[in-house]
Amino acid sequence: MSPMINPRPAEKIIRAYEIKSPHGKGIFYITNFGVYIETRRYGLVLDISFDEICSYLNTKRAFRIEWRGSTGRLHYEFVVNTPRQVFETFAAANKEFAWCFKKDALIKIS
């Protein structure tokens, strides 16, 4: 399956994982700006940046992302073979995003 995602300028895919989601089998992409989920059946089902995500966690077999929407708190959970590895990759990418965002904000303020 070739990626259907349309990355933003300067956005790079850090890692991709095969998943089983409520929308079927697909790929979870972690980029330097956020995450995408695309499934074989529905195509792109989630495109969310790190600044919109309010929490994330992993369980024994699943990974969950939560964000605030207009109707309240929303979430998307999917099964992955390596939830701990997904968590660590996600956390590192999110931390790098936050550091770059903070650095850019400090440069603009100066």
Structural notes for this entry:
The protein is α+β, with helices and mostly antiparallel strands. The chain has a single domain (13-109), classed as Pleckstrin-homology domain (PH domain)/Phosphotyrosine-binding domain (PTB) (PH-domain like). The chain is built from one helix and seven strands; from the N terminus they run βββββββα. It has one helix spanning 83-109; strands spanning 13-21, 24-31, 34-39, 43-49, 53-58, 62-69, 72-80. Strands 4-3-2-1-7-6-5 form a seven-stranded antiparallel sheet, covered by helices on one side. A hairpin with a 3-residue loop joins strand 5 (53-58) and strand 6.
Q: How would the blueprint of this fold be written?
A:
Layout: E1 13-21, E2 24-31, E3 34-39, E4 43-49, E5 53-58, E6 62-69, E7 72-80, H1 83-109
Antiparallel strand pairs: 1-2, 1-7, 2-3, 3-4, 5-6, 6-7
Quaternary state of this entry equals single chain
* Gap from first CA to last CA: 45 Å
Q: Helical proportion?
A: 10-25%
Biggest sheet: strand arrangement: 4-3-2-1-7-6-5
Major sheet: size, sense and barrel closure? Answer: 7 strands, antiparallel
The outline comes out as globular
Count up the helices: 1
Q: Spans with pLDDT under 50 lasting ≥5 residues?
A: 105-110
Q: Provide the CATH architecture.
A: Roll
Structure keywords:
1 helix, alpha+beta, globular, 110 residues, single chain, PH-domain like, 25% helix, 48% strand, disordered C terminus
